[in-house]
């Protein structure tokens, strides 16, 4: 039986800039940040709450996983907004939305009532969209 | 030679002998800390009863034989966590513990962080690249980004 999700990847254009965004704008904590032999930087972030899930901020680079061509394709798809970082939960969508807007986070949809709660939709500084959801209790 | 001087000489010889015996026990711990050690085993090397050995050891060195043993093991584990490509359970065994749980909680108590976190923190601070990805990052990431399988 699988009990929880430990890591999930978000592809970003630049790890330094993504770290600045997730840490200083969204207020995430840094889990790991270490250089690994082979030129890979292992960088993870997670929300300040007791989240089990750490988000791995990775750059699509030529290597075992991507060819040069596919890494470039991924980069342009990120910029286009073809990928999502997932759903981030909040106790108060309106309040968090306002805090994030004040910090300069770009939103493509303000807090809106949905069947499951209140949801706003923003994009990170790479172009990945994310939902900010206050679940209906 | 005055009587007083002779007394002192005898006193020093006796003390010196006591130190030598005590040191033999301490050296035995230092040489064998990777093995399971019991207090009575160690005390034998000092020709003392376990209780007497414990008391004298604590008096002289300021820590009990067991505290000394733990200190050696934890220091060695810290070194290995940073420089060696061993898993935490392998390191646990190499420094003389049979239970990973008790080693981890002991390490946590002594160092303030769990062994894995200690390793990660130290490596995160290091300017050198992490040489053993399988010790720090999930194998799927090592495989996909570095082309390395876990060893």
Which features characterize this protein?
heterodimer; A: 137 residues; alpha/beta; four-stranded mixed beta sheet; 3 helices; 8 strands; 25% helix; globular; B: 151 residues; mainly alpha; 9 helices; elongated
Structural account:
Chain A is of the alpha/beta class and 137 residues long. In chain A, 25% of the residues lie in helices and 39% in strands. Chain A contains three helices and eight strands. A four-stranded mixed β-sheet of chain A has the order 1-4-3-2. Chain A starts with 6 loop residues before the first strand and ends with a strand. Chain B has 151 residues and is mainly α. Chain B has nine helices and no strands. Chain B starts with a helix and ends in a 5-residue tail after the last helix. The relative contact order of chain B is 0.08. The longest helix of chain B is centred in the first third of the chain and has 30 residues, at 3-32. Chain B has helices spanning 3-32, 39-45, 50-61, 65-83, 88-94, 100-111, 115-125, 133-136, 139-146. The mean pLDDT of chain B is 85. At the A-B interface, strand 2 of A face helix 7 and helix 9 of B.
